[in-house]
Amino acid sequence: MTKLRNSLNARRARQETSLISFIMAGLPNPQLCLDCIKAIEQGGGDALELGVPFSDPLADGVVIERFHHRGINAGLNLKHSLDFADKVRQAVNIPLVLFAYYNPILQMGMEVLAQACQAVGIEALIVPDLPLDEIKQVHTDLEFIPMVAPSSPDERLDMAAAMNPSFIYCVSVRGVTGVRSLPEDEVKAYLQKLKPKTDAILALGFGISSPEQIKTFKNSADAVVVGSYLAQIMEEYESRPQLLPTQIEKAIAALKKPCAN
């Protein structure tokens, strides 16, 4: 079993909610990004999704979309993100997941990517624009994390469950990432429908930005994913880089409190 799977399952066994953070690889700049990742670990983050800048990030809202475009304009790509992941692996011990759209992966080649990920300690891959039925046709030792949503039919939920992943990324709403209020009853209903189908960790993402939201969904989801909220903090404090890591650590620590209670 991977460190990712072991870590998430151990927290669930202790009736804790895991906190998974998303951050765009190498932005606002490599050193500041690395400092923020260290702060995520210091604050209590349990796993990290590293995003790869892409020109057409269909699943991402306006805040993270700005980071995608900044990365593209700076010449960052999948190879740069993997190089950066190697530095991350040397700096922190939390499990790493790569979040990348499919076109750059197709250009690199899945087997080449799988070998590169294993070399830098990336344990799993999220590809938001690769359908689940096509994931099954990709032969690689690298684990895929499936994504489902409230609109997913039972067939798609069954397909995600059959993959037996370290976690299933449960999108909270129909739409893109971003800080927002969440439809509590709808989210809980579809998580409850998915739970009997799988022993996998259910990680709720898209819109998680407060301790109150985590408290609301703590008994329905095994983990939460936080991305746009952290991106907003990075934008707010980028002009004061000496303060940014501390603000990230404080935000993670605040979100972590209800995870353990």
From TrEMBL:
Gene3D superfamilies: Aldolase class I. GO terms for cellular component: cytosol. The keyword Lyase applies. Pathway: Amino-acid biosynthesis; L-tryptophan biosynthesis; L-tryptophan from chorismate: step 5/5. Its EC number is 4.2.1.20. The active site is at 49 (proton acceptor), 60 (proton acceptor). CDD domains: Tryptophan_synthase_alpha. It catalyses: (1S,2R)-1-C-(indol-3-yl)glycerol 3-phosphate + L-serine = D-glyceraldehyde 3-phosphate + L-tryptophan + H2O. Pfam families: Trp_syntA. The keyword Amino-acid biosynthesis applies. It is an enzyme of class 4 (lyase). One of its GO terms (molecular function) is tryptophan synthase activity. Keywords: Amino-acid biosynthesis, Aromatic amino acid biosynthesis, Lyase, Tryptophan biosynthesis. SUPFAM superfamilies: Ribulose-phoshate binding barrel (SSF51366). Tetramer of two alpha and two beta chains. The alpha subunit is responsible for the aldol cleavage of indoleglycerol phosphate to indole and glyceraldehyde 3-phosphate. Belongs to the TrpA family. This is Tryptophan synthase alpha chain. It comes from Syntrophomonas zehnderi OL-4. The gene is trpA.
